[in-house]
Amino acid sequence: MNADEWLRAFAAELNRRRVRADAARHVVAEAAAHLRDGGGDPWAVFGRPQDYAAAIVETIGTSPAARPGPVRLDARGITKRYGRRTVLRDASLAVRAGQIAAVIGANGCGKSTFLRVCAGLVSPDAGDVTVSGRVGYCPQQGGTADFLLPDEHFVLIGAGRGVARGLARRAGRAAARHLGWEADGDVLARNLSGGTRQKLNLTMSTLSEPDVLLLDEPYQGFDQGTYVNFWDQLARLRDEGRAIVVVTHLLNQLDRVDLVLDLTPATQGGRA
Ligand SMILES: Nc1ncnc2c1ncn2[C@@H]1O[C@H](COP(=O)(O)OP(=O)(O)OP(=O)(O)O)[C@@H](O)[C@H]1O
Hints:
single chain; alpha/beta; Rossmann fold; five-stranded parallel β-sheet; binds adenosine-5'-triphosphate; ABC_transporter-like_ATP-bd; ATP hydrolysis activity; AAA+_ATPase; ABC transporter
């Protein structure tokens, strides 16, 4: 395990112990700086990442993130057919305020369809979805308007909630900054790079302060730094009490989530 892997394991353990995202980010950055400046093997310097995380939690008395609250999204027995093909069969997921759920599975097993059913965009053939509160949805593609500036997207989202233009712009830019993006430029959405357009998409889905946030592989095209910011931001949103569902193919991040729904059919080795 090299220094990066050690730091990742350390961050994951802090997350598992529900240390607040901002505090976790701070101690991980400190450990990284210590390793960078002093060199050396992290195992020799800090010991096991799990033990060091436990010591940190005890020593600094970090207040843990709030425990999960009431169920915000309850999808039960969802079945969906397209023509003769059954894409989803009896899929269920309940997510509480303050939880992150990952939806995983092979290509074409119905992850996006499940999310669209949860968002109310597709009707299931059987089953029910109950949502308590406001929903934010970040589709895998699309979602932005080609001929608008990022700021104009933020103003539009704000207008839907009666938020003044200046305030909406500031809120949008602040949310974008969490992804390491300065969104004050004058580039139309259609001319943004693919990764930046996806940052705009993701930023918009969080702007309405949703109680339930549905994210369909929102990090496609993100560079490594943005990707790290993305998972930190998810942890922060979770700590604020949001119920989050993220479709992902990246199983190495599953230690950062609270629940996993595997939609791979059992005949193909799925866990569901
Ligand atoms: N509107 C539609 N009409 C007909 N078939 C559809 C429709 N939407 C999705 N499908 C089919 O349903 C299946 C599941 O699609 P879905 O996009 O939900 O899978 P996924 O697990 O998200 O895939 P991926 O991992 O590739 O993103 C696919 O075979 C797809 O072609």
